[in-house]
């Protein structure tokens, strides 16, 4: 169940797309898009606001506020229904292809009468798109890729954050029931995979019935898929499956181990158990000969009997963690409490929705020792950044520094890596920042050579300390760019440039496997949120989970370091600063 703010955000975004596709006012479409983002990032639940309260949200005017009120009261908005009805359902289906914007979707419908994904596939194969203005072979390729992505997302996996929201609510509800000894989630969610197929919840209790009944009766349970004494499965109103298993309390550790997975990790453990004369199941570790139980209550005891230390769930992917554990070489993975600050964040000076003051005080509440503000630079033209604006912001940042306990503020920017690897400002201007993040935001379809050179050039700039969201992937929407990342990682190591692990649940970029690869080059990392609102700062947990899946330790992550060490990394003495 999305929060009301997110539901409203999705609805207004859809309206903006529909306005654009029906050839409506581009200004109006943009206004709805801005309002959608502002509401999505607004810290107060919109369901608690009236029309007047809504209008206090930036970019929300009277007419938008009225639509939101209508939605909150009736679950629908007549204006949205109207435009929906004016567009064939197939064209709306086209809009769900992640690589196809509203303009192109409309052109396909008007020029070629394409009104479904199937018809679009036919048109691509018949090469009918090539005759359309603004379409080329590259567009075809993108469209085909988009359709593949969409069909993959149709496999029903959801973003880690969406699954986490549901799981935490379910665990909260079930924990309150009398007789609940323990309750926790397991599966890919506990391993912090970037997407989750279904949610596995475990309860330790003597009787299972009250828990099964409670799950079936939750307000967001839409359908009961299977109902039994040991396991019940339901589907939520948002289409997410939740599997609940109730275990006897003495089997808690064995059950948690089994249902956390991964399957491949479990198989390795079972093989080890057999070699040690045991049998491992979700009920415990048993002596193979006598069938007598050895241990079952905690994961630690089971690992210990197999001669292993406890292995963090984020490492349980059969990527060598058992061999490392046997050698005593398991990494001590970075934890959220180790993070001393966030090095990539935005404010409403560009496309953020919270003010500088709001972002800074929310960061201070998180107990950070330092915090960097890195708004977009001028080459991302939509953001209208100027030298004057960023310098004025610097004054405000300096004035705020020290006002929040001991948290120190860094003034930075997120530069745009241009098609040639060029950056927004000359070096002497960059020298004025405490920190420069540099990221790719456009020209994703350049050749592999061009993309690689672009990223390597950015690394080579002495003022660039972090490469933001390095592959630019957006989960379920857009694949990462096709650069030679081995060359990029090598350049990062050589130039002392950190790679970002972007914590936004839609990005998680670098992903676990890329992190593992980059780490072999001796690269350092920065786990950042790229927050555009105070509500995004807590996304840090997802970045840290991803960093753990990439086997990163505190030492690998520059924003766990004390400020002085971080500053030396940002401004090494050899560089001309
Ligand atoms: P998901 O839901 O696709 O994101 O991935 P998981 O890992 O949560 O997989 P799921 O929900 O099918 O099963 C949860 C855990 O239960 C899985 O990680 C390991 C365990 N498990 C499930 N089926 C098997 C199996 O056939 N053999 C073994 N050893 N473990 C299994
Ligand atoms: Ca699962
Ligand atoms: Ca499952
Ligand atoms: Zn960016």
Automatic annotation (TrEMBL):
CDD domains assigned: NT_POLXc, PHP_PolX
Protein name: DNA polymerase beta
A Pfam family recorded for this sequence: PHP
Entry GO MF terms: class I DNA-(apurinic or apyrimidinic site) endonuclease activity; DNA binding; DNA-directed DNA polymerase activity; exonuclease activity; phosphoric ester hydrolase activity; zinc ion binding
SMART domains tied to this protein: HhH1, POLIIIAc, POLXc
Residue ranges of domain Polymerase/histidinol phosphatase N-terminal in the record: 341-419
Biological process terms in GO annotation: DNA repair
Function of the protein: Repair polymerase that plays a key role in base-excision repair. During this process, the damaged base is excised by specific DNA glycosylases, the DNA backbone is nicked at the abasic site by an apurinic/apyrimidic (AP) endonuclease, and POLB removes 5'-deoxyribose-phosphate from the preincised AP site acting as a 5'-deoxyribose-phosphate lyase (5'-dRP lyase); through its DNA polymerase activity, it adds one nucleotide to the 3' end of the arising single-nucleotide gap.
Classification lineage: Bacteria, Bacillati, Actinomycetota, Actinomycetes, Kitasatosporales
Domain Helix-hairpin-helix DNA-binding motif class: residue ranges: 52-71, 92-111, 127-146
């Amino acid at each position: 169940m999305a929060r009301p703010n997110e539901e409203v955000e999705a609805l207004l975004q859809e309206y903006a797309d529909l306005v654009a596709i029906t050839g409506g006012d581009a200004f109006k479409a943009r206004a709805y898009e801005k309002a959608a983002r502002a509401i999505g990032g607004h810290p107060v639940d919109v369901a608690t606001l009236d029309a007047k309260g809504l209008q206090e949200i930036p970019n929300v005017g009277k007419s938008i506020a009225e639509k939101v009120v209508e939605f909150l009261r009736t679950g629908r908005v007549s204006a949205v229904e109207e435009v929906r009805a004016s567009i064939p359902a197939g064209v709306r289906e086209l809009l769900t292809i992640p690589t196809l914007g509203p303009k192109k979707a409309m052109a396909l419908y008007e020029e070629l009468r394409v009104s479904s994904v199937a018809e679009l596939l036919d048109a691509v194969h018949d090469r009918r798109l090539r005759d359309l203005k603004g379409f080329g072979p590259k567009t075809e390729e993108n469209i085909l890729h988009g359709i593949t992505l969409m069909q993959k997302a149709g496999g029903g996996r959801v973003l880690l954050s969406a699954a986490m929201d549901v799981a935490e609510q379910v665990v909260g509800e079930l924990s309150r029931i009398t007789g609940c000894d323990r309750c926790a989630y397991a599966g890919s969610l506990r391993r912090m995979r970037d997407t989750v197929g279904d949610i596995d919840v475990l309860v330790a209790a003597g009787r299972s019935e009250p828990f099964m009944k409670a799950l079936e009766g939750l307000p967001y349970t839409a359908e009961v898929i299977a109902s039994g004494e040991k396991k019940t499965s339901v589907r939520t109103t948002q289409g997410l499956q939740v599997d609940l298993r109730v275990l006897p309390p003495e089997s808690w550790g064995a059950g948690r181990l089994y249902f956390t997975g991964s399957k491949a990790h479990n198989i390795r453990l079972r093989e080890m158990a057999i070699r040690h004369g045991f049998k491992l199941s979700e009920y415990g570790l048993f002596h193979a000969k006598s069938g007598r139980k050895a241990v079952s209550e905690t994961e630690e005891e089971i690992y210990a009997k197999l001669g292993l230390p406890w292995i963090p769930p984020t490492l349980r992917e059969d990527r060598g963690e058992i061999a490392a554990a046997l050698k005593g070489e398991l990494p001590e993975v970075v934890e959220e409490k180790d993070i001393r600050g966030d090095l990539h964040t935005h404010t409403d000076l560009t496309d953020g929705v919270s003010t500088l003051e709001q972002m800074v005080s929310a960061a201070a509440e998180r107990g950070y020792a330092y915090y960097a503000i890195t708004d977009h630079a001028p080459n991302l033209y939509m953001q209208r950044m100027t030298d004057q604006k960023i310098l004025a912001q610097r004054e405000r940042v300096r004035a705020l520094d020290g006002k929040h306990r001991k948290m120190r503020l860094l003034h930075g920017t997120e530069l745009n890596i241009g098609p040639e690897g060029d950056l927004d400002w000359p070096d002497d201007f960059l020298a004025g920042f405490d920190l420069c993040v540099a990221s790719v935001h456009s020209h994703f379809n350049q050749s592999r050579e061009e993309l690689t050179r672009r990223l390597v050039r950015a690394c080579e700039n002495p003022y660039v300390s972090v490469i933001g969201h390095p592959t630019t992937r957006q989960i379920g929407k857009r694949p990462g760019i096709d650069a030679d990342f081995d060359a990029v990682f090598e350049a990062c190591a050589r130039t002392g440039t950190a790679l970002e692990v972007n914590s936004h649940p839609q990005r998680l970029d670098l992903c676990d496997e890329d992190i593992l690869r980059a780490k072999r080059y001796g690269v350092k990392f920065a786990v950042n949120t790229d927050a555009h609102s105070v509500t995004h700062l807590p996304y840090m947990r997802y970045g840290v989970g991803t960093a753990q899946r990439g086997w990163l330790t505190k030492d690998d992550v520059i924003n766990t370091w004390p400020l002085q060490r971080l500053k030396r990394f940002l401004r090494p003495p050899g560089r001309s600063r």
